[in-house]
Amino acid sequence: MEIKPLQRKDFGKIQRFAITGMHLSRYTSNRFELYFYAKYFWYLELLRATRIYAAYEGDEFAGVLLLDIDGEQKAYRSWWAQKFVALMEWLMQRGYADTSDQYGSANDEMLANYKQRQHVDGELNFFLVNTEIVGRGIGTQLLIAAEKDLENKHIYLFTDDGSTYQFYDKRGFERVGEKQISLPVNGEDVALTAMLYAKQY
Known about the structure:
The chain has a single domain (2-200), classed as Aminopeptidase (3-Layer(aba) Sandwich), CATH 3.40.630. It has 201 residues and is an alpha+beta fold. Strand 6 (174-185) and strand 7 (188-200) form a beta hairpin. The chain is built from six helices and seven strands; from the N terminus they run βααββααβαβαββ. Helix 2 (31-48) crosses helix 3. It has a seven-stranded mixed sheet with strand order 1-2-3-4-5-7-6, sandwiched between helices. This is GNAT family N-acetyltransferase. Its EC number is 2.3.1.-.
């Protein structure tokens, strides 16, 4: 496996893997909505990132990790992507406000509480592995590559108990906040634990 620049041709794969790997289907079962939500979610985080780490096995996309470090220039710029994200956020406020507000508010509250007692330097804001390649330690290798550049940085990330949060437990991250929320999914309320993790390098 090799860490190298992310290829634009793999954006579609990332969006597809995000639907299953990040359980985006918890928000809607409509395939049309899922497609656009995955695209929105990817571009939202990509536009925020200041560092991009991509893993490849030959020419096959294996995974990607994004970091947003305070004071650094953004790594990706796209007028089209900015407009797309803005349009999607406008639409979501009219159709999915309750879902997005609960999750976002929980994360904002946990981070605000943590910042009262700890300075942070940035966020691990996107982390995804190709769900068709398993058992090869891709996530670990991506994290190791990013960690080499994080000396003296205090990094946080958001996750939840619907994701593989145990990965961070095993790699030296500390769970510094959690909050119970309830998301409306397909007409039913689904309980979820939002979590904040952090690590000092």
